[in-house]
Specification:
Layout lengths: L2 H9 L11 H12 L3 H8 L1 H15 L5 H12 L8 H9 L3 H15 L4 H12 L24 E3 L2 E2 L6
Antiparallel strand pairs: 1-2
Helix pairs in contact: 1-4, 4-5, 4-7, 5-6, 6-7
């Protein structure tokens, strides 16, 4: 298999799990995709999406093997299986990267990949979760930003006391 084609299948949100997915799960996935607006379905299968994910994996994660995990997260957000505001947490936990890297990666996905289809994604997210991150007047969902230099309330060691937080 040519290298470009192999990378396409590895980083494509549509094909990422195709080799290991049972027929019934593949049929469910295809049914969900069939219900998407055409622009979102095209985003899942586009070669440009696969290239974007490969570049993103190299830039932020430094390991192209983790690109398939990013592809899964992107697919799950587009299908509204994952709330878009949870992308940083998903990226951090699935890829094992620091929260700052996860937030930066999520911002890149939203601002670069999702930008042309953000309204369709917002609509699906609102239908599924009944909410959107950030204000309803913003052009794109806000991804939580770390506050530089903010001190965390500690009770000792690395335990954070959240009881008195608002």
């Amino acid at each position: 298999m040519p290298q470009d084609l192999q990378k396409y299948f590895q980083f494509s949100p549509f094909f990422v799990d195709s080799a290991s997915m049972p027929d019934l799960d593949w049929e469910r996935l295809q049914n969900k995709i069939d219900q998407l607006p055409p622009t979102l379905a095209n985003l899942l299968t586009s070669n440009k999406t696969s290239e974007f994910i490969g570049t993103l994996a190299q830039k932020y994660i430094q390991l192209s093997v983790r690109g398939s995990d990013i592809a899964r997260i992107i697919r799950d957000v587009i299908l509204s299986d994952v709330y878009i505001g949870d992308m940083p947490a998903q990226i951090s936990s699935k890829l094992g990267v620091e929260q700052n890297t996860a937030v930066e990666t999520a911002r890149a996905v939203v601002s670069q990949l999702f930008a042309p289809v953000i309204e369709e994604i917002k609509k699906l997210q609102l239908q599924k979760f009944g909410k959107l991150p950030g204000s309803s007047t913003s052009q794109q969902p806000s991804i939580p930003r770390p506050v530089p230099g903010a001190e965390l309330p500690e009770t000792g060691g690395n335990i954070i006391d959240l009881r008195n937080q608002k």
